[in-house]
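Fold this complex.
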Amino acid sequence: MPPDRCLSPCVATWRVPEYALGTTLDSGQAFRWRPVQLGTMNRGTCRLEARTTGTWEGVVGTRWVRLRQGGEELGAETVVPSADWSWLEQYLQVAVELGPVLATFPPDAALQTAVAACPGLRLLRQDPWECLASFILSSTKQIEQIRQIIERLCAGYGDAVAVPAGHEPAFAFPGPERLAACSEAELRACRAGFRAPYLLEAARRVAAGTLDFTALAERPVHEARAALMSLPGVGRKIADCVLLFAYGFATVFPVDVWVLRALRELYFPGRRMTPRALLEFSETHFGPQAGYAQQYLFHYMRRARVTPVARRPGRCCA
DNA sequence: ACCCAGGATGGAA
DNA sequence: TTCCATCATGGG
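Structure:
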C-alpha cells in the first residue's frame, strides 16, 4: 500500500509513520546530506540538532532536494519539477513499513536495545554506482572525511544541478565514464589517497561494461557479491554495503569495525572471537532482514561513542 | 607524538 | 589457513 501523499511538481509530502529522517540521512549509509537551519547563520554547523528537528539538503541523481520532517510527515522540495516522484519514493523507501521488518528480528536483548535507541532508523535505496564509488572511498576513513572527499569529487567532476536562486551551487555525483576519464592524480587531489587507483579502475571497468552493473540485481546474492569483489579495492565489507544499500539484498549484513565491536561486546563479551567466527554468526543469527539489524547495531554503537564528545558544552549549536 | 577511522592487499609465518 | 605491514589523510 502506498502511503498517504500529496504531490505537485516541485513539492511533495508523504505520511510515513516511524521514519526518523535525520537519523537515517546521517547514519553513515549515504554521504551527501547536509543539515540546514533555515533563517539562521550557522547553516550546516550542527548535525545533532538537525537530526531531530531540522531540514536537510542533498542531491539525488540529477536533482537538488530539500527534505524536512514534521511528525509523521516527510516533505520534499526540488527546483526541477517532477511529473513522477518515484525516484525519491524509491530512494527514501517510503512504502516500507518498519513494523513488519522489526518483527523478523531475533528477540535478543542487544538488538532490542539498539532498536529502542534509534527509533525510526531506515535503510535507503541508493544508486549503485554512487554507492560503490562512495564505499571504495570509505576504507579507513571517518564518515566526515568520506563526505569531504565525495564533495570534492562532485564539485570537481560532477555536473552542476539546478538550485534555488541565491543558493550555493550543487553537483551530481560524477558517473563512471566521467571518473574513468580522470587521472589518478586528479582523484588524489580530492584526498582519495591510496583509494584513488581503486576508484579509477572501478570506474573504468563499469564504464567499459566489464562489470555488468545493472544485471547484478537479478543475480543470487553470492554471485552479485563475487562480481563486486572482483573489482580492485572491493572486499567483502564494501561489496556488502553496495548489495544492501543500493541493490536492496535484505539479508546482507556488512561487518565493519563498529559492527565487529557490537558483536564482540553485545553478543560475546570476554570470549575472544575471531572476525571470521563473528561473520559466520552474523550470517545465521539475524534472519531475513539482517541488513536492517546491522544498521541498528552500527548506529547504536557509533552514537554511544560519538555523541558524548560532540555534545560537549559550547561545541554544538551554541 | 600517537591512535584510530563504515578496509583491502600482498606476502610472511 | 591466519597474521601483518602498508597504503593516505585528517581528527581527537
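The longest strand of chain A covers residues 63-70.
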